[in-house]
Design brief:
By secondary structure, this protein is α/β, with parallel strands linked by helices. A hairpin with a 6-residue loop joins β8 and β9. α6 crosses α9. The two termini are about 30 Å apart. The chain contains ten helices and 14 strands. About 40% of the residues lie in helices and about 20% in strands.
């Protein structure tokens, strides 16, 4: 199992570290355009191998896509990160050009790869990969919902003073501060609905805190977060590599599901060796349906800024 990560910044390096520690891949290739960065981070991570007990080989390369040949899974994290006060949508101009070039180079050397898109605005960048490649829809996956759901569960556990292992919850919709749809009606603590523990007002606050989770961290850190995004990517990669058939909310191309067409947006999917093996349609409340429709309109508007 060979995994390539394009972009050896904080998110890409964090992703490589989590994949290596889980020890399910034979090789991870880190690629970056900045001379020496990927090689240096790969070396630093390999020097952790004996300490953390993994045998995954991590290789760094400066813009040499031939090193990525034969990748089973390719992760695109490259692009400029958010700065305080920026929305994900404001990154579209620069990052669209980067993602288009990267996906073309990856497929030249690994035509059978499954692509996971992390670059922002993520739903639109995932849609761009669909529009500019000939890959089937199951092999293009946008990572946003897995991260947003992890942040949602963190906020729920915080509100209930509960261990996070007790919490289950999911965020669907667009990966944006306004587009996320935290499914409070489906969230549970050990199979009991969270509404049994929290007031409607407190649940609404949890949802709002979840939606601005990335912006909150960007303000505190001065740049985008990387630990949780890296962990979220590694969870998707592992589900595919190990054919786990695990359910995650991922940005997927919809063709009628949830009443939506011709856009990529976060919905529950089953991930396995073929990538997206099934899009799962769940029952939403009327309020959640309305929010999903509003979120889709926002994603479509951002898609309209693409030049494809």
């Amino acid at each position: 199992m060979k995994v390539t990560i394009v972009g050896a910044g904080a998110v890409g390096a964090s992703c490589a570290e989590y994949i290596a520690i889980k020890n399910f891949a034979s090789e991870v290739v880190l690629l970056d355009i900045k001379e020496g960065v990927a090689e240096g981070k790969a070396m630093d991570l390999m020097q952790c191998a004996s300490l953390n007990g993994f045998d995954t080989r991590i290789v760094g390369t400066t813009n040499d896509y031939s090193k990525t040949a034969g990748s089973d899974i390719a992760v695109i994290t490259s692009g400029i990160p958010r700065k305080p006060g920026m929305t994900r949508e404001e990154l579209i101009g620069i990052n669209a050009g980067i993602v288009k070039t990267v996906s073309s180079n990856l497929l030249e050397h690994s035509p059978n790869t499954i692509v996971i898109v992390v670059s922002n605005p993520m739903d639109t960048m995932t849609y761009l990969v669909h529009k500019t490649t000939n890959l089937p829809k199951n092999r293009i996956i946008g990572m946003g919902g897995a991260l947003d759901s992890a942040r949602f569960k963190y906020r729920l556990a915080e509100a209930m003073e509960s261990p996070i292992s007790d919490i289950d919850g999911m965020v669907i919709g667009g990966h944006s501060d306004t587009g996320m749809v935290p499914l409070t009606s489906h969230a549970t603590r050990n199979s009991i609905r969270v509404s049994e523990f929290l007031s409607e007002e407190r649940l609404q606050q949890v949802a709002e805190d979840t939606k601005v989770g990335g912006a909150t961290l960007t303000k505190l850190l001065g740049t985008s977060a990387w630990y949780a995004p890296g962990a979220a990517v590694s969870a998707l990669v592992q589900a595919i590599a190990c054919d786990q058939k695990k359910m995650f909310p991922c940005s997927s191309l919809l063709e009628g599901e949830y009443g939506l067409n011709d856009l990529c947006i976060g919905v529950p999917v089953l991930l396995g060796r073929n990538g997206i093996e099934q899009i799962v349609e769940i029952e939403l409340t009327e309020a959640e349906k309305a929010k999903m429709k509003e979120s889709a309109a926002g994603v479509s508007k951002t898609n309209g800024l693409l030049e494809v």
